[in-house]
């Protein structure tokens, strides 16, 4: 009977493949797609399992892709090959249950049964109780994580020789740029890798989360990946906390982003002092003083609450314009609705969770787009925006569920 140095169940590799297939994704440096991999699925999975179990699997270079950021600049993503994504998922399936039970309650990013809405909700509550917030962003965390410190943390929780072997090989796999040139890596874990978010959460658990609980237990905090918030009672306390956090990250080989790290005053109807920063953006929402309606009394008060950020709204409107829907006169209104409703539904579910009415600026753009489509579609409406608007209004009244945002 054939024996292998490492006992890795075949079923685990099969489960990993199914999860990778469900997540889809682009091809890596070998240009092999998921569809092409599946042409000889049984053979390809067996080869992977065989190499994994024998210790002969080496991670290929990661394909570098630069994605534009909403606020300008680019974000560097590393795209592993399909085979490497399956191997990473195999390891993640073993690591995640143990590590997730270790992570603290206020770590929200890239975790099962945790969401951005959870982070936004708890932040809203804490902003009512605490006057000051330290907002921080870790500069290039996926590029700068210390391999030595990360492997120390991994070894602290796992002693599987094959798992440690492959995690270390992933960390040192080169990055291949658009010209096909490989660049060695001595730090970081590529953003875009299957196991990278889990590894970065483990690193930041010790660099920040666990450290906060030990050294600043009276200051509630919230972290979503490399974005974090710490709540304070006074400005002096906020200054001290920010200084301590900055020094802590430096000691771990990381630094705070100077343009995205600041102290904010949660100004509202009862907190009326003056301060230069009285709002902040977090996970696509802007927290600031707003008029809030009390339904039980049909009255209003000024509260420090979240609503979709102007930046996020602009990004949605830009996506609508780039879709060029207004010129798709070959479609019926029902077909147009079927195409854009999934997108609108996703926006509504995420950005409409808090202050649903603030999505009006996006819905207005949607309505303008539909009116422009009607003018392009029907000759009788071409010269009159008013007529086109009334036509759409009449159709939507007759079919109230036609567009998701009505």
Task: Write a concise synopsis of the structure shown.
With 406 residues, the protein is of the alpha+beta class. The chain has 14 helices and 11 strands. 48% of the residues lie in helices and 15% in strands.
Question: What features would you highlight for this structure?
Answer:
single chain; 406 residues; alpha+beta; four-stranded mixed beta sheet; four-stranded antiparallel beta sheet; 14 helices; 11 strands
Description:
A hairpin with a 4-residue loop joins β10 and β11 (299-308). Helices cover 48% and strands 15% of the residues. With 406 residues, it is an alpha+beta fold. The chain has a 4-stranded mixed sheet with strand order 2-1-4-5, with no helix packed on it. Strands 6-7-3-8 form a 4-stranded antiparallel sheet. Strands 9-10-11 form a 3-stranded antiparallel sheet.
């Amino acid at each position: 009977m054939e024996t292998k140095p490492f006992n890795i169940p075949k079923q685990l590799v099969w489960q990993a493949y199914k999860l990778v297939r469900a997540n889809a994704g682009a091809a890596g440096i070998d240009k092999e797609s998921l569809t092409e991999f599946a042409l000889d699925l049984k053979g390809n999975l067996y080869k992977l399992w065989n190499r994994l179990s024998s210790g002969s699997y080496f991670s290929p270079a990661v394909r570098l892709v630069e994605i534009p950021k909403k606020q300008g600049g680019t974000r560097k993503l590393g795209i592993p090959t399909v085979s490497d994504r399956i191997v990473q998922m195999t390891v993640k399936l073993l690591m995640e249950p143990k590590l997730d039970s270790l992570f603290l309650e206020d770590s929200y990013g890239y975790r099962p049964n945790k969401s951005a809405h959870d982070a936004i909700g708890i932040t809203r509550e804490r902003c009512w109780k605490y006057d000051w917030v330290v907002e921080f962003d870790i500069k290039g965390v996926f590029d700068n994580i210390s391999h030595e410190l990360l492997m120390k943390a991994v070894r602290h929780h796992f002693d599987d020789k094959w798992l440690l072997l492959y995690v270390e090989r992933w960390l040192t796999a080169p990055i291949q740029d658009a010209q096909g040139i490989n660049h060695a890596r001595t730090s970081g874990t590529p953003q875009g890798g299957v196991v990278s978010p889990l590894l970065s959460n483990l690193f930041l658990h010790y660099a920040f989360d666990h450290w906060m609980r030990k050294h600043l237990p009276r200051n509630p905090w919230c972290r979503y990946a490399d974005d974090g918030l710490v709540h304070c009672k006074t400005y002096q306390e906020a200054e001290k906390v920010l200084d301590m956090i900055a020094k802590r990250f430096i000691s771990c080989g990381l630094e705070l982003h100077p343009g995205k790290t600041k102290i904010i005053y949660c100004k509202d109807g009862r907190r009326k002092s003056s301060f230069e920063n009285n709002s902040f953006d977090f996970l696509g929402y802007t927290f600031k003083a707003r008029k809030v309606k009390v339904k039980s009394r049909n009255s209003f008060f000024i509260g420090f609450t979240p609503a979709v950020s102007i930046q996020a709204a602009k990004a949605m409107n830009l996506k609508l314009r780039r879709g060029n829907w207004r010129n798709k006169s070959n479609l019926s209104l029902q077909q147009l609705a079927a195409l854009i409703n999934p997108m609108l539904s996703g926006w509504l579910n995420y950005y409409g969770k808090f202050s649903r009415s603030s999505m009006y600026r996006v819905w207005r753009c949607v309505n303008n787009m539909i009116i422009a489509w009607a003018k392009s579609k029907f000759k009788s409406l071409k010269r009159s925006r008013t007529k086109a608007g009334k036509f759409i209004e009449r159709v939507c009244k007759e079919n109230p569920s036609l567009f998701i945002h009505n």
